[in-house]
Design a protein that fits this description.
This protein has eight helices and seven strands; from the N terminus they run E-H-E-H-E-H-E-H-E-H-E-H-H-H-E. With about 250 residues, the chain is an alpha/beta fold. It has a seven-stranded parallel beta sheet with strand order 3-2-1-4-5-6-7, sandwiched between helices. Helix 1 runs parallel beside helix 2. InterPro entries: NAD(P)-bd_dom_sf, SDR_fam. Pfam families: adh_short. Belongs to the short-chain dehydrogenases/reductases (SDR) family.
Length: about 250
């Protein structure tokens, strides 16, 4: 897709997992990338590979999305160094397992800060720049907004907020030509998921026959989600906005 050769993509959670593969996917399509994450060593590693894969330009910004001032800095640095913002990908996520009986309110606050408040605030910050480029936003949500899984209460609540942000902002920003969509992955084999679920539970979930998908397999690969993000950001999805698109191999049919 040569259309990304002149585009700037601001990507959060870019240092590992789905975000890392999203970065490589945009790089292969010639985009300039602003990679944001908390681990500077991982960010630099991803940035180096993005350059090899074909990215036009790459910058890295080490930032914790819990702090609003960090998001201000991310947007300012991106525009200063790369000139514009065409695509915002709200991919960064945080999760801790808990049920209605065990959920911790302090954990709840952090989960919502990363998964709900940060995408909202970054969207607000990027609107003036996306107006200029008639750009788009892709939020990385989760299938847990429509399929209930035990222990995922707080994470699912936060991702439901992400879905609603997607639909509401799509409706409100359409007048500027700004599209907003989300991808809702089923269980994807990443370090993030293994950290959240714990090694033993992650292995159990990966093998659980209830998570087998009609198209096959027990869990998704990050590349499958990255391809959907690329599509939603492309002109091929120019008539799509306000959509939360499952990436689940038919899990939610």
């Amino acid at each position: 897709m040569g259309e990304f050769n002149e585009k700037v993509v601001l990507l959060t959670g870019a240092s590992s997992g789905i975000g890392e593969v999203i970065a490589y996917t945009f790089a292969k399509n010639g985009a300039s990338l602003s990679l944001c994450g908390r681990n500077p060593d991982n960010l630099n590693r991803v940035a180096d590979k993005c350059k090899v894969e074909g990215a036009s330009k790459v910058i890295t910004i080490c930032a914790d999305l819990v702090k609003l001032e960090n998001m201000n800095r991310m947007v300012e640095e991106t525009v200063t160094k790369l000139g514009q913002i065409d695509v915002l990908v709200n991919n960064a996520g945080f999760g801790i397992l808990g049920t209605i009986e065990t959920a911790n309110i302090e954990d709840f606050d952090k989960i919502f800060a990363v998964n709900a408040k940060a995408p909202l605030y970054l969207t607000q910050l990027c609107i003036p720049h996306l107006k200029k480029t008639k750009g788009c936003i892709v939020n990385v949500s989760s299938l847990v907004t429509t399929v209930c899984l035990t222990y995922f209460l707080q994470y699912a609540m936060a991702k439901c907020a992400t879905d609603h942000l997607t639909k509401s902002s799509a409706l409100e920003l359409a007048k500027y030509g700004i599209r907003v969509n989300a991808v809702n992955p089923a269980v994807t084999k990443t370090d993030f998921f293994e950290r959240m679920a714990g090694e033993d539970m992650a292995k159990q979930i990966f093998k659980d026959h209830n998570l087998l998908h009609p198209l096959g397999g027990s869990c998704l690969e990050s590349s499958e989600i990255a391809d959907i993000v690329l599509f939603l950001a492309s002109s091929g999805a120019r008539s799509i906005t306000g959509t939360c698109l499952p990436g689940d191999r038919g899990r939610n049919v």
